[in-house]
Design goal:
about 0% strand, Cytochrome Bc1 Complex, Chain D, domain 2
């Protein structure tokens, strides 16, 4: 039985109903279930399996480490990724990252992406892997001899990334679209290394990376 108490000619019933609705509200789940739900907004570009779409410059992300996906999403949220006029794919991606506003969203969608079967995209460039091997010696300290990366240094497994995506990112580092912001600590290291590479040298070293799979 509900008792109606007068308040300035009205009752407490509406307030009680509002309070009940608030008590019934539950936060969204955190983890794989929430990640799968959030990934529905990613699938139109990156694909249901996370294999990407070269036609819209959306890279393969399936099976990338959770820490790396989290790093990149936060980079977009903090505007040291996707805020440069020459980085059109990044400009498209940043609003998607910014939309992850609830606590645990970034971690949840990153966990889901990491759970997808890793994809090793086919080569699309025609660099000289033999020449690129020498240039890759500089990359070993962070990305490893096997190209599998190093979480402690925030270095991703580049063997899982599309070769065209790697080329675009090296160009971004070189022209200042990435790694030029003081808050992008790890990107700054990549920017320094990219400055010494010509476009041809970039394609050569990427061709060598493809041989590490």
């Amino acid at each position: 039985m509900m008792v109606r108490l007068p308040i300035a000619g009205k009752t407490l019933l509406p307030l009680l109903l509002i309070g009940a609705a608030a008590c019934d509200a539950t936060p969204p789940p955190v983890g794989m279930e929430r990640g799968a739900e959030l990934y529905e907004t990613c699938a139109p570009c990156h694909g249901d399996a996370g294999s990407g779409n070269v036609d819209i410059a959306a890279p393969s992300i399936a099976g990338l480490p959770q820490w790396y996906v989290e790093d990149q999403l936060r980079g977009f949220q903090n505007e040291y990724r996707g805020d440069h006029a020459e980085d059109l794919p990044g400009l498209r991606m940043r609003p998607m990252a910014v939309s992850l506003t609830r606590e645990g969203d970034v971690e949840s969608v990153a966990q889901f992406v990491a759970s997808l079967d890793a994809v090793y995209p086919e080569s699309t460039l025609h660099g000289n892997a033999g020449v690129g091997a020498a240039s890759y010696a500089v990359c070993v300290a962070c990305h490893g001899e096997d190209g599998l990366g190093n979480a402690d240094l925030h270095s991703p497994p580049i063997v899982q990334l599309d070769d065209w995506y790697l080329l675009n990112q090296l160009r971004n580092f070189k022209n200042g679209a990435r790694g030029a912001r003081p808050d992008d600590v790890w990107g700054a290291t990549m920017r320094v290394n990219s400055l010494v590479l010509t476009d041809e040298a970039m394609q050569d070293v990427i061709a060598y990376v493809q041989t590490l799979r």
